[in-house]
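In the design runs reported in the main text, the only information available to the sequence generator was the tokenized backbone. The following block is the verbatim input for one such run; it is reproduced so that readers can re-run the procedure and compare outputs position by position.
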């Protein structure tokens, strides 16, 4: 998912709408316990806040498939979450989590 924020930075557009459905491939799920993560719906927008920083406000919903803790058979688990924060802060958090992630385990 790529978004061109040039028009936001140049104050041409007030926001960039987001309305996509995304499916993660097996390589993206590598190192996680997820078996499947398909048809994830992402709706929201990118906009410049009052401080001039790019902010993301969106909802994410879908169904993840995980192995049952007892039988290891696939179990569907519906989820829904909202994300609202400055993009730079979100990228910093992702970077910190990736730094702490080694061999599929958080330490």
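Verbatim output:
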């Amino acid at each position: 998912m790529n978004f061109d924020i040039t028009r936001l930075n140049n104050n041409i557009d007030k926001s960039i709408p987001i309305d996509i459905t995304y499916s993660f491939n097996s390589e993206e799920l590598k190192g996680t316990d997820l078996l499947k993560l398909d048809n994830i719906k992402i709706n929201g927008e990118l906009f410049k806040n009052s401080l001039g920083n790019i902010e993301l406000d969106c909802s994410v919903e879908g169904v993840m498939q995980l192995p049952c803790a007892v039988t290891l058979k696939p179990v569907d688990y519906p989820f829904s979450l909202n994300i609202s924060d400055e993009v730079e802060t979100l990228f910093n958090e992702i970077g910190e989590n990736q730094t702490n992630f080694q061999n599929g385990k958080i330490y």
